[in-house]
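Re: that backbone. Tokens:
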């Protein structure tokens, strides 16, 4: 099979969903037996400190024999989320300037104590120079 044939098999049918830093690609592809299956790819953009960026991708494959059950479970899970939390997006914690308010002083004290314990345990670490190994 030449490269052009491979490209034609890759581009059977596609849709793109852009969602902030994430992009979802829904692609219909063909098996070697020329049957179809679905790939869903999440691509997330990350910006480095120097201004350059890179993408991390995660892909799942869904085959025809799983479509009905996958669709049912996806609908059930999305309905559950909307029923429990509504359809309003609560995404402020993902904003760069988000600062969690500590209304519960007990929760804050517990978190502070855990942080102090972590700091105490790291004091006993030994510096290792990997050039010596």
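Recovered sequence:
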């Amino acid at each position: 099979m030449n490269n052009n044939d491979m490209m034609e098999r890759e581009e059977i049918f596609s849709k793109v969903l852009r969602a902030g830093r994430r992009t979802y690609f829904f692609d219909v592809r063909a098996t070697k037996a020329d049957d179809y299956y679905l790939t869903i790819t999440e691509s997330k953009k990350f910006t480095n400190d120097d201004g350059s960026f890179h993408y991390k991708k995660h892909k799942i494959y869904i085959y025809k024999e799983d479509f009905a059950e996958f669709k049912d479970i996806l609908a059930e899970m999305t309905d559950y989320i909307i029923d429990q939390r509504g359809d309003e997006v609560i995404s402020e914690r993902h904003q760069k300037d988000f600062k969690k308010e500590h209304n519960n002083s007990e929760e804050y004290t517990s978190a502070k104590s855990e942080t102090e314990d972590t700091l105490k345990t790291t004091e006993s670490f030994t510096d290792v120079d990997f050039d010596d190994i």
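The longest helix spans residues 67-85. The radius of gyration is 23 Å.
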